[in-house]
Q: What sequence folds into this?
C-alpha cells in the first residue's frame, strides 16, 4: 500500500500545518506535534533550554493541571524528544479517544501553567540527567568535546543537553515564559495524526481545539553556518574509560541536498551490515579494532559524518596504525567509485529498513510531520537516496575526506599510578 496516497493536508488560519493519514485498519491513533525549535535557538549563556522546556511541557497547562493523568484515563501514553533543530511531542491512544490528545496538546500550546514547583522539579531532573549521561558514564563528554572542536561559531557547538548544568540551574520563570512566547506558537508547528480517524472528523476536531489559538511572532535566527575548514583539528583527552576510542569527524552538507544523501550512502557503504567495508576489512581481521562504525548527524544546517572506533590496543603506535587503516579505506572510496552492485545493496537495505520502520503508526506520524516541516513528500528523502550514482558517491567522498577537513578526537584511558 502506498501510504502517501492516503495523506491529507490543511493549514489553519493561525498558521498551524496539519498532515493526516487515515488508516481504518487500526484501532489506535497517534497525535504528533513537531515544533520548529531546538538547541540551535539557544544563546551561548543559556544552553539546554530546549531540552528543559520539553520536560516542562508535561508540568500542566492553563486548564489541565495533570497532563499524564488525563491521557492515562483515556488509555493513552506520551513521550517527547528534543534535537538540535526540533522538539517533538506525541501521544498514542485508542482512536475513539483522539479528542483527548488534541485537547491536551492544544491547551499546552495555548498556555503552560508556568508553575514554580514544576520548574524546580524539572530543573533537578535535567541536571541529574546531565550528570548521569555526561559526567558519570565512560566517554560521556565526547559529544561536548566533538562539538566544541567542530563548531566555533554556530550553536551546534553545544550538545542538546547543554554546555554545562549550571545553565539549567539558573533558568528562571521569566526565561521559561520568554521561550514559550517566542517558539511555542501554532505558526511554528506541524501537527501530524495517523490512525483510524476520518479526515472530516480530524478536520473538525483540529479546528475546534487549535483554531482559537492565536499566532505569535517567532524569534528570528541570525547565526550563519561555519566556514569551510582550512586545517585539520585534533583533541586529545583521557578519562575513566576501558579502551582508547578514536572518533574522526568530517563536516557534511545540510539535510535535503544531494550531498547529504551521498554522505548518508557513504556511511552505509562503510559500516551498514556485515557486507560493509569496515566490517569486512577492518573489524573481521581483528588487528586494530573491537568496534568501528560510521554515521551521520543529519541536521538543518551543515552537519557531521562521524567514524567512531574502539581500539584493541592502547598507545601511540596502535593509534597511528588504526588511523592509517581508516584513512586508507576513506581514500579508496574518494578515488574509486563503489560498484553499482555495492551501492544498490545499500539502497535496498535502506529501503527495506524504511519500509518496515513505517509499519508502526508512531513512526508514520513522525515521518509525515518531519516531511511537512521540510515542505516535501514523506518519500522524498528515500527518492534522493535512490537517485544516487556511484560517481556522485565518489565525488562526495573526495570532497568530504580531504585531510584538512578531518577533526579527530582521541579518548585514552587515564594513566593511574598504583
A:
Amino acid at each position: 500500500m502506498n501510504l502517501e496516497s492516503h495523506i491529507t493536508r490543511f493549514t489553519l488560519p493561525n498558521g498551524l500545518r496539519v498532515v493526516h493519514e487515515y488508516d481504518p485498519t487500526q484501532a489506535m491513533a497517534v497525535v504528533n506535534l513537531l515544533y520548529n525549535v531546538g538547541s540551535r535557538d539557544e544563546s551561548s549563556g543559556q544552553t539546554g533550554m530546549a531540552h528543559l522546556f520539553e520536560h516542562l511541557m508535561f508540568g500542566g497547562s492553563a486548564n489541565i493541571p495533570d497532563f499524564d493523568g488525563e491521557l492515562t484515563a483515556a488509555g493513552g501514553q506520551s513521550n517527547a524528544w528534543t534535537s538540535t533543530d526540533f522538539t517533538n511531542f506525541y501521544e498514542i491512544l485508542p482512536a475513539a479517544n483522539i479528542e483527548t490528545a488534541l485537547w491536551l496538546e492544544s491547551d499546552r500550546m495555548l498556555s503552560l501553567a508556568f508553575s514554580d514547583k514544576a520548574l524546580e522539579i524539572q530543573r533537578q531532573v535535567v541536571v541529574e540527567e546531565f550528570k548521569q549521561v555526561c559526567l558519570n558514564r565512560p566517554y560521556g563528554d565526547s559529544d561536548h568535546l566533538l562539538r566544541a572542536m567542530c563548531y566555533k561559531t554556530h550553536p551546534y557547538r553545544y550538545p542538546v543537553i547543554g554546555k554545562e548544568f549550571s545553565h539549567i540551574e539558573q533558568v528562571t520563570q521569566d526565561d521559561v515564559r520568554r521561550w514559550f512566547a517566542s517558539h511555542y506558537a501554532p505558526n511554528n508547528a506541524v501537527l501530524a495524526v495517523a490512525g483510524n480517524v476520518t479526515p472530516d472528523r480530524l478536520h473538525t476536531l483540529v479546528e475546534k481545539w487549535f483554531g482559537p489559538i492565536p499566532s505569535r511572532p517567532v524569534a528570528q535566527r541570525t547565526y550563519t553556518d561555519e566556514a569551510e575548514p582550512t586545517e585539520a583539528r585534533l583533541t586529545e583527552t583521557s578519562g575513566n574509560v576501558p579502551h582508547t576510542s578514536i572518533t574522526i569527524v568530517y563536516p557534511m552538507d545540510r539535510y535535503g541536498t544531494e550531498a547529504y544523501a551521498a554522505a548518508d550512502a557513504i556511511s552505509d557503504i562503510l559500516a551498514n551490515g556485515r557486507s560493509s567495508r569496515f566490517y569486512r576489512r577492518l573489524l573481521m581481521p581483528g588487528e586494530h579494532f573491537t568496534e568501528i562504525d560510521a554515521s551521520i548527524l543529519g541536521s538543518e544546517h551543515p552537519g557531521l559524518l562521524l567514524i567512531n572506533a574502539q581500539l584493541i590496543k592502547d598507545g601511540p603506535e596502535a593509534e597511528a596504525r588504526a588511523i592509517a587503516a581508516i584513512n586508507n579505506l576513506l581514500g579508496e572510496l574518494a578515488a574509486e567509485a563503489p560498484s553499482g552492485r555495492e551501492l544498490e545493496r545499500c539502497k535496498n537495505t535502506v529501503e527495506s529498513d524504511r519500509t518496515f520502520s513505517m509499519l508502526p503508526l508512531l513512526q508514520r506520524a513522525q515521518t509525515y510531520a518531519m516531511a511537512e516541516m521540510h515542505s516535501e513528500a514523506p518519500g522524498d528523502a528515500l527518492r534522493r537516496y535512490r537517485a544516487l550514482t556511484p560517481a556522485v558517491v565518489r565525488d562526495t567522498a573526495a570532497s568530504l575526506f580531504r585531510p584538512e577537513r578531518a577533526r579527530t578526537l582521541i579518548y585514552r584511558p587515564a594513566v593511574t599510578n598504583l
Q: What stands out?
A: The chain has a mean pLDDT of 96.
